[in-house]
Amino acid sequence: MKTAWQVAVVGAGPVGLALALHAARLLPHAQITLFDARPLDRDVAADPRTLALSLGSVQFLQRLGAWPAAAAQPITEVQISQQPPSLAGAEVRLLARELGVPQLGAVLAYGSLVAPLQQAWLDAAAREPARLRTRFGTPVAGLKPLADGVEVDAGIAERYDLAVVAEGGVFTDQVRKRVHSDYGQTAWVGSVTLEGATPGRAFERFTPHGPAALLPLPPLPQTSAGAAVAARSALVWCVPTRDDPVRDLDDAQRLAVLSSIFPAAAGHLVGVSPLKPFALGLNAERTLVDGRTVRIGNAAQTLHPVAGQGLNLGLRDAHELVAVLRWADDLDVALRRAEWARAADRWTMIAATDFLARSFTWTLPGAAWARGMGLSALQATAPAKAWLARRMMFGAR
User: Fold this and answer.
1) Helix, strand or coil, per DSSP, at residue 108
2) What is the mean pLDDT of residues 183-196?
């Protein structure tokens, strides 16, 4: 790529930072400006929110030189099952060793990922200050389409050839997009401590109220020599908003209910943190590209967390966009190509998560039994199970 395009990246979360870093390396003639409303001196490393990344995302971040391996817990096994009594024993087990990969993905804190990504960007910008510019503490108030670019209003109006918006937020804070559905569900998010848990094992459990997931977290350091350390897992517990069975429970009651939900293989639950509720819904743009503005990550699609694919989809958006721009001479042609290249992966994942989210609102007799039969059939069909695992690790290719 030899054209010196002016590129604005709006949003310095994991997707925006990954996009900016990848573009800085593979588009050597492009001038890139990174905007974020967050002040640069804010301690982003302290953000404890949990992120689940697929193997493809881990590999992408490793290539960027910003993967904090010491702060991440690899996922080596995923168990997907249904709570009894509906076809008890129905489950799918995905194991990294059976697939010939070191891990299926990894779990880490938001701050543990964003801090090294941000530092890698700042280091790159320090090496090339004339080409890579940082505008933290600068919210973007609006984007105005131009005939040959985008006007970015960040206090003053500036023209760019391309604006990439990676600033999404959570479902309830977003402007309604073209494809929109409120699932009437709430995700209660926090963490649990367990005894007897297998390191690296994650669980997805289908219940009559909705899916619940445990994602293994990095272990806490031992406080004294030889002292046993309880394992920790991130919890995502999805229930109906209108008839919420979690809201009025105290911690002891929540722990008792969770112990009845997850299988014995998860370990013995001994503690639960305060839980925070998030409304769940689908909010997606029909297209990533609108003129010279491209939306990626949560700015393009916010999904139900049932498959844990929202961030991974955003990172694939970033990777593919830069790959298309790398050899392009005509920016508009390249953006149309990027739209086409991302369509199958985006819409397959949007449709899959939407179907799973809606299926928990069905009251048809036998729906849970049919889901259990599907899990049993998938476990018994090795090629189909391997296909599912690779789709979750790498998306549609």
Assistant:
1) strand
2) 96
Query: Helix 382-394 vs helix 367-380: angle between axes, to the nearest 10 degrees?
Result: 100
Residue in this structure with the two tokens 């009594």, named with its chain if needed = 85
Please choose, from the candidates 396, 394, 397, the residue with its C-alpha nearest in 3D space to the C-alpha of residue 57.
394
Q: Of all residues in the chain, what percent carry a pLDDT higher than 90?
A: 82
C-alpha gyration radius of the chain = 22
Cα(206)–Cα(10) distance, integer angstroms: 37
Express each pLDDT in 201-249 by its tens digit: 999 999 888 999 999 999 876 655 555 567 999 999 999 999 999 999 9
Mention every residue, 6+ apart, whose C-beta is less than 8 A from residue 116: 66, 67, 68
% helix / strand / coil in the chain, to the nearest 5? 35, 30, 35
Residue 250 lies in a domain: no
**What length does the chain have?**
397
Q: Could you give the C-alpha distances from 61 to 11, 138, 200, 396, in angstroms and in order? A: 17, 26, 20, 19
Instruction: Classify residue 215: in a domain, yes or no.
Output: no
Instruction: Quickly list DSSP for 122-171.
Output: HHHHHH-TTTEEEEET----EEEEETTEEEEESSSEEEESEEEE-----G
Nearest to 1 by CA among 339, 332, 324, 333: 324
Q: How confident is the model over 78-136, as pLDDT tens digits?
A: 999 988 765 556 889 999 999 999 999 999 999 999 999 999 999 999 999 999 999 99
Give me the chain's average pLDDT, please.
92
The structural domain count of the chain equals 1
Residue 251 domain flag: no
Domain assignment present for residue 267? The answer is: no
Distance CA 30, CA 321 (A): 14
DSSP 8-state code for residue 45: G
Query: Which domain does 329 fall in, by range?
Result: 6-178+281-394
Read off the pLDDT band of 360 (50, 70, 90).
Answer: confident
Q: What is the CATH number of the domain that holds 376?
A: 3.50.50.60
Q: Please tell me the distance from the alpha carbon of residue 284 to that of residue 357, in angstroms, as a whole number.
A: 15
Q: For 15-35, what is each residue's pLDDT tens digit? A: 999 999 999 999 999 999 999
3-state SS, residue 228: coil
How confident is residue 363, by pLDDT bands cut at 50, 70 and 90?
low
Helices (H) and strands (E) in the chain, counts: 9, 21
